[in-house]
Amino acid sequence: xxxxxxTPKFRILKIGQSMTLQCTQDMNHNYMYWYRQDPGMGLKLIxxxxxxxxxxxxxxxxxxxxxxxxxxxxxxxxELAAPSQTSVYFCASSQDGPTYGYTFGSGTRLTVV
Amino acid sequence: ELKVEQxxxxxxxxxxxxxxxxCNYSTTSDRLYWYRQDPGKSLESLFVLLxxxxxxxxxxxxxxxxxxxRLSTLHITAAVHDLSATYFCAVANTGTASKLTFxxxxxxxxxx
Lengths: 113, 112
Known about the structure:
The structure holds 2 protein chains of 2 kinds. Chain A has no helices and 11 strands. Chain A has strands spanning 4-7, 10-13, 19-25, 31-37, 43-51, 54-57, 64-66, 76-78, 87-94, 103-104, 108-112. In chain A, strands 2, 4, 5, 6, 9, 10 and 11 form a 7-stranded mixed β-sheet that branches. A 4-stranded antiparallel β-sheet of chain A has the order 1-3-8-7, with no helix packed on it. Chain B is an all-beta fold. In chain B, a hairpin with a 4-residue loop joins strand 7 and strand 8 (71-76). Chain B starts with a strand and ends with a strand.
């Protein structure tokens, strides 16, 4: 049982480049989330989705886009990368209710130079 | 807007000692979660607290929730080096989607 899988694990981007961070879950969870974690800080919500075809902005959505065409996949797109997007990105999923909290992926460490 | 504050932000303690980490939040919620993060790793779920007065224990860690005071505590008993990590509390926002707002974390260092 893989849980939440994120790729790549590490990436260095040049300013202005674009990339997609992949996130896949095999638990049939409807709810999926993207967070970023800056050094020594907590996690901030970028985007979330409550099901296929439904997405919404979180606390820090600027510079990012998402799509949710299937229950399993929730990719995060960075357009025109900026140094301020240097961070660790975590994807998470949850069941339809509070009992279990989130299952997190292993994270993607992104550096923009 | 829900805000979550943890204190202390950094805690250095000796093995065998007891200590408590505090998590305060600003608006009504009855769902609170504690996570552990080792350096360079992902977040691991520790406790799920779903009602006022809830108490959960696992080994040397015990978490409690007081929804009236908007306060959760994570108590460490007789700390050991293996507990060294960063601990986050997260509070569920009201409404749909089970969105969590995270505290800034408490970095715990247990020394011999």
